Amino acid sequence: MTKKTPAPVLVRHVIWFGWKLVILLSFALCFFALLRLHFSSENSASSSPNSFSPARARSQISRDNFHGPPKIAFLFLARLNLPLDFLWGSFFENADVANFSIYIHSAPGFVFDESTSRSHFLYNRQLTDSIQVVWGESSMIEAERLLLATALEDPANQRFVLLSDSCVPLYNFSYIYRYLMGSSRSFVDSFLDVKDGRYHPKMSPLIPKGKWRKGSQWISLVRSHAEVIVDDEIVLPVFKNFCKRRPPLDTSKGKLNIVKTSKATQLYPR
Ligand SMILES: *[C@@H]1O[C@H](CO)[C@@H](O)[C@H](O)[C@H]1NC(C)=O
Ligand SMILES: *[C@@H]1O[C@H](CO)[C@@H](O)[C@H](O)[C@H]1NC(C)=O
């Protein structure tokens, strides 16, 4: 009989050990969850280097908190200098200096001054934090985003016009000023190019195939749309992953080069 007494003690020990294990496990889970929360918030903050403080700073500026007339921001995306600077010079000559601002994204380190430009309007208007741009890749979008972000810092800038180094003004300043300010819309080129094979199926679902459009990047935006582009954290990362220039044609492959392209166009229903 006396030999049976240790049994309940043993059971109690097992139960107590089980409880300890459960408590320990839940502590470990809580700690793990905390760690995950910490790191995921840190990641989402670091993945948007362009949008953290400017966005907050901008939201603190009242939309109409500026003196003087609203400005058009002319945003030039240049390879180096602006070959048509003399044309732009006479264009800006007939403008009111209070009505516009100029920003230029050029090769890093390139300076617009007397030795590189024929128009004083362009002197020292280049961004100081410009990046190396590969034509046709996502770095081009990043350069445009830098231009928009810098121009957004001036609350007087109310229209944002992206221009290439080969764009020319077709109308005088006052006509363009009245035209853009007279409309509350952005002007964007967008069409469905059925022969285009640049859509990558892996872009889905963030960029659905049905929403894929082609268009020139030389656009005019109102302030709220410029903000959408600068604050975007969804579309640009997808472009960074999948927007790559096609490798150059390999002449030794002959027709094999073409097979790839025709497969891509088959993505579109006829
Ligand atoms: C600007 O162009 C418009 C339309 O072409 C014209 O009517 C107007 O007189 C011009 N303004 C100036 C200041 O040249
Ligand atoms: C400059 O802006 C003012 C106010 O918006 C406008 O009345 C004037 O016509 C503009 N000047 C030019 C040259 O467009």
UniProtKB/TrEMBL annotation:
What would you give as a GO molecular function for this chain, any one?
glycosyltransferase activity
Instruction: Report whether Membrane shows up as a keyword of the record.
Output: yes
What cellular component GO annotations does this protein have? membrane
**Segments traversing the membrane:** 21-39
Compartments, as annotated in UniProt: Membrane
The protein's topology relative to the membrane is:
Single-pass type II membrane protein
Alphabetized, the UniProt keywords read: Glycoprotein, Glycosyltransferase, Membrane, Transferase, Transmembrane, Transmembrane helix
Q: Which Pfam families does the entry link to?
A: Branch
Descriptive protein name = Uncharacterized protein LOC111275218 isoform X4
Question: Which organism does this record belong to?
Answer: Durio zibethinus (Durian)
